Amino acid sequence: MHRLAAGEAERPHLRSEGVPRALIQGFLGSLLVLFGSFGVGWLANGSVINRWFWVIPLRTEPWGVAVTTVALTLGCWVMFHAWLLLGRALREPERSPWPAGSLRIVNIATAVWSLPHLVCVPIFSRDVYAYLNQGRLVLAGGDPYQEGVSQLDNWFHFGTDPMWAQSETPYGPMFLWIEAAVMWLTSNQVDAAVLLFRLACVAGVVLIMIYLPKLAEHFGTHAGRAQWLACANPLFIISFISSAHNDALMMGFALAGIYAAATADKHWSRGVVATVLVTVSIGMKIISMVLLPFVALLWAAARAEGESGWMRKFRYWCLTAGLTGAILLLVGWVNGYGLRWIMVLAGTGDTGKSFWSPVGIVDDTLSNTLHALGQDADWTLDALRLAGRLASVLIVVLLMFIGRDRHIMQRMTWAFAALVVLSPIIHPWYLLWLLPLFAAVGVRNDWQTKWVVFTVGFFICYGAQDQLSVWEFLDLDQEMLRLSLATSAASMLLIALLPSARWMWTQGWFAAPLHFKAPGLGRTYALHTYDRIRLETVEPGRRASSGAHSAEQLHTGELPVTAEQSKAPQ
């Protein structure tokens, strides 16, 4: 307790050691991303930016494309390093309690780093241009759940990926209203529409940044650390602001609803508000429907004294399902689409796979094996997709019925994770569906935090080279891909060697040492990976001292004070 009190006394501020450096470096990285986006970001043919005199050479000359490719990729890694610097300044490497006031610093850093992205040319994805044409289709009286945007005149002029030309929209009916409103307000002007869509997504970001700390505090985790993990990382800023993904709105309304349900013990009406908010989230993207039964459980648990009984659980399940159904029926009646959009969206995403998804890995292994044996392998992906869906549904149902009330949030998080992980397609921003939920229930400061950091790094590397807009006549696609990968590789190596970020891989892996025997030597060794990476020989008949900490201590950061720490000056 003495160490915790001391940590709270050292309230961080904008001039605290390491904070200014992190703020400035992250902002400079964002400026590099902004500059790079003008050369290799996604621009619609109808954008006036294409005709800006200083943008033309960046997009049409080989040197301009190369310079902006490096700037974009390098800027992402500068932001990544700034993110680690901020965590270091707020005691993340020490695995001690984050000081009071950390949340304010993280919020300021996230806002500062996000500013250049507000005017960034879309990067990492061009889904925002699909929103434009779908909004035009709604205004034209079409049905995006039955028609593709190719029905529109001049649809290609608005930058939509051709893969959407004949496809139904995968978005909920409430987001269609936002699409139509943006296109009506901007009179179909491409650049103004992109900016307005981005501001709508910023509203979702604000909701996430408001309710994630509240949820973290409610479930006993540090609000500032949760915000740092989920919102200050560059993948969050790029995917939800630069790319303008409507997933920000989906998660913003979802987190607000979850918090309202978890605190429904104060006012019964909060459960109603929670259901309405999650229904709005479903109206953005249907995937968040998996959260609804767990929101009902949170509502039931909040109203119960002790463990809620099965009659109460079924009553609240029926109440939330009935209220959601009534709202969606009303929305379907108003927009004329009815509820058929649910069946349409349930069948979307049936093409392709991500090479890093578990289903994709199994499919590659299985199909390659069958091909080597001379067998047909055209059926493997469809079969694995079906198996993944059935398995994810089974996991969700089991988590609905099995577990104590105090673990509802964890069960909901793993249910959502099952849907994502068992899908054949996992886009980089899907991580951002799960990360706020895991951050709210607690990501331990050991290998779990490493997993988050390295996953963010992987998706930055992939997104920077995969989503480059390069004119076909330049014939530079593969060269820029390799240039981006080389920039990422050099950046990752440099960051790993810098003293300011070396802690991320040299310490804090496993609290207990890993014991193993060397073949032929008959000796037992202990590999320590927590305080620092070191190898020691273990004498026969004894185990290495672990210095292990409990899961609760790793979770909260309230680690016991060692003899050396107690002697250190305070």
From TrEMBL:
One Gene Ontology term, aspect cellular component: membrane
GO molecular function: glycosyltransferase activity
Cellular localization per UniProt: Membrane
Superkingdom, taxonomy of origin: Bacteria
Transmembrane segments: 21-43, 63-84, 192-213, 234-262, 282-302, 314-334, 383-402, 414-439, 451-471, 483-505
UniProt keyword Transmembrane helix, yes or no: yes
Region of interest called Disordered, as start-end residue ranges on this chain: 545-570
InterPro entries membership: MptA/B-like
One Pfam family this sequence matches: MptA_B_family
Entry keyword set: Glycosyltransferase, Membrane, Transferase, Transmembrane, Transmembrane helix
Membrane-protein topology: Multi-pass membrane protein
Chloroplast found in the keyword field: no
Similarity-based family: Belongs to the MptA/B family.
NCBIfam families: MptB
Protein name: DUF2029 domain-containing protein
